[in-house]
Design goal:
The chain has 178 residues and is mainly alpha-helical. It is 65% helix and 0% strand. The termini are far apart.
């Protein structure tokens, strides 16, 4: 087995592990998402480094899951007739964090994705879709997930949801403390 085949086999093994992450806690899940980004980079680097010059494929500018997250946010935002400024302010997310997420420079944390969903007034199903596009999900038997789900279904505001999360000693939605 040559080096390229070995590296690709390692990457495939990591991807299989990442696929099993639905049953893990939120912190481990976020960690695995970061590993997947690294694995995608390694696979892209190996493909271009080990291929012959005439067979090189063009390098991708963005990770597909990040692109679909940005596209999904923009679709929801345009449907709600909101500007980017209105969205990040309503989501309690700083301009810099929002810009980095939408441009694909960073992957959003689960709390940030949910804050954006609240700002957009998304249903529970739409929020699940947005979370999935960012590599996150609601976790069964997780207090944070249970509180957020209840608040979405009861159409509570981001402020009311943060009050409940704070009362339970959990991470708040957004990254700006008010």
């Amino acid at each position: 087995m040559n080096k390229k085949s070995q590296l690709i086999a390692i990457i495939k093994n990591y991807r299989m592990l990442i696929a099993a992450q639905k049953d893990i806690s939120a912190n481990v899940y976020s960690f695995c998402s970061n590993i997947e980004v690294g694995m995608n980079f390694i696979q892209e680097y190996c493909s271009s480094a080990f291929s012959s010059p005439e067979k090189k494929s063009p390098r991708q500018k963005r990770i597909p899951s990040q692109a679909s997250f940005s596209e999904l946010v923009n679709t929801f935002r345009e449907h709600k007739k909101m500007t980017n400024v209105e969205l990040y302010k309503k989501a309690n997310v700083s301009k810099q964090v929002y810009s980095n997420i939408i441009s694909g420079k960073v992957f959003p944390k689960r709390e940030t994705v949910i804050a954006i969903a609240f700002a957009l007034g998304l249903t529970f199903e739409e929020t699940e879709k947005l979370l999935a596009s960012a590599g996150h999900s609601f976790i069964p038997d997780d207090t944070f997930s249970r509180i957020v789900k209840e608040c979405i279904l009861l159409e509570k505001s981001i402020e009311e949801t943060n009050a409940q999360l704070d009362k339970a000693g959990l991470s708040l939605l957004g990254n700006i403390v008010k």
